[in-house]
Amino acid sequence: MINPDAQLNPSLFEEDIAQVPTRNGYGEGLVLAGEENPNVVALCADLKESTRVEAFAKKFPERFVEIGVAEQNMATVAAGLGVSGKIPFISSYATFSPGRNWEQIRTTICYNDSNVKIAGHHAGISVGPDGATHQATEDIAMMRALPNMRVIVPCDAIEARKATMAAAHIWGPVYLRFAREKTPVITTDSTPFAPGRIQVLWESKKPEVLVIGAGPILANALFAAHDLEKEKIGTIVVNCHTLKPLDEKGIIALAKRAEAVVTVEEHQITGGLGGAVAEALAKHHPIPIEFVGMHDTFGESGTPSELMEKYGMGVKDILAAIKKVIRRKK
Amino acid sequence: MEALHEKKLQFLELMTNRLRQEVIRIVSGAGSGHIAGPLDTAEIFTSMYFHVLQHDPKHPHWAHRDRMVVSCGHYCPMFYATLAHAGYFKVEELKTLRRIDSRLQGHPHRNALPGLETTSGPLGSGVSQAAGMALAARLDRKKCRVYCLTSDGEHQEGNTWEGIMFAAKHRLSNLTVIVDRNNIQIDGYTEDIMPLEPFRAKYEAFGWHVVEVNGHDIPAFIGAIAEAQAIYEKPTVIIAHTVAARGVSFMERDYLWHSKPFKPGEAEQALKELKAEQEKIAQSHEK
Fold it and tell me: What residues in B contact A70, CB-CB < 8 Å?
């Protein structure tokens, strides 16, 4: 059943659940962070509307910097601002930032320890018709490998707003990942959000599997858990919004109760959430694990739901992974 | 900026010689490192740290200091030598260059050593960072200026031109870029590898004020800085024409000295030449 402490959306399992893109939460959070702290500045690479920086730009025109189509410049200008007392948020599609400007992020933001926040938009395959060139499925791996970097993947628009505001308070580089499409609003304003801590969203009485997810795909994990309850298969579903630093302690404690794990993400399983969890389990508590995510392939054009199904990240794929990992427990 | 009187000029000229000797000693001591660029920017570094910059080596984080961004991180033997002689850390520490546990990393790391405004080495990212600092200074209504030393070779990087475009858009007149136009890079001469000319026209077309100067002429270089400070409408670039590896006859103009280990006797020979030059500078001002 739903963990009451998480105070999730009461209409979670209803057909008409509210759907909002996580990027909207970024836009709202950025304005709130800007109101809170005059040092927050926003940079954008010719994608003001679709990365939802527009509201900030309207409210704080003097603190909005339009860079044009130049992501390497965006990262390095931000690096200069970040060592000068500013808190720059840089926004573009994740394939370009942190894709195209990875070395600049490595040297001038991470190694340089500049207080820059990187918002990677249109992440995952659910970008849809634009095709694989615009579907970032490697960004978490690229960011997770960088020393000094923190990585946060919000599961819905409300959490995106909280994560954006939290990032302004965290000193140092932070990567935030957002999606294009409308996705179910899982949480509420009252849902606690603590960066660096996993959060239990669903907990059965006798859990056989721990499902760890990050990002909007968590809704599919919850739908799967809900379906399995009817089949008397118990699960725990956790929101692992902070992939780095990973809450190893929290994950291991729950893994010891379930003794099997499924990771769920809209990203390559290599180097993403699956990789991170596998590293933690291998170190502390090696048990069977199954991975739901992109399996070493690029996406393509299509509707988001068609793509999620074709590339194995739908509810039925999560159900199959849970059942498979249970079989492997013996 | 104070006027440059005769005594100060002699001090600066002697400092360039001292720093060149330091570069030879520390690079030969380290067994590796870059030579040509560091040697040919002695006048630039000396002019900046001992005459131009508003800075306080005892308070490297002073909020209103001028920023000196060294985009070409491989120039760090000269950069470190200058910082040490300016008082940022003990000259003694220079000999730890490139060694384990040293604050003097093979390429400069901001958090390792006082006086560094950024981490650099990977080329082409300095102008943009300096532009970001200049923009931050403007937002905060600070009067400090931002200077960025670049190599000519790193103008082959797209990121450099992105930064140049950005600074012009924002009319960052508090930003001055200094180019060490020594015409060499690792694989050869810039105009053979990937031509930069017409260099001046490119900067002008991008909306910058351009000053060309002999990079070894201290009064002329300081004059160029004064001109940059008087330009209010746009950023300024000082194209400082230099002789690669200036100061050591058998290294000058040879691109192979971009970076190569010394053979036995070469460092000693270089120091001998530089000491002779030191005498000449001392005598020239006695006349």
Answer: 162, 165-166
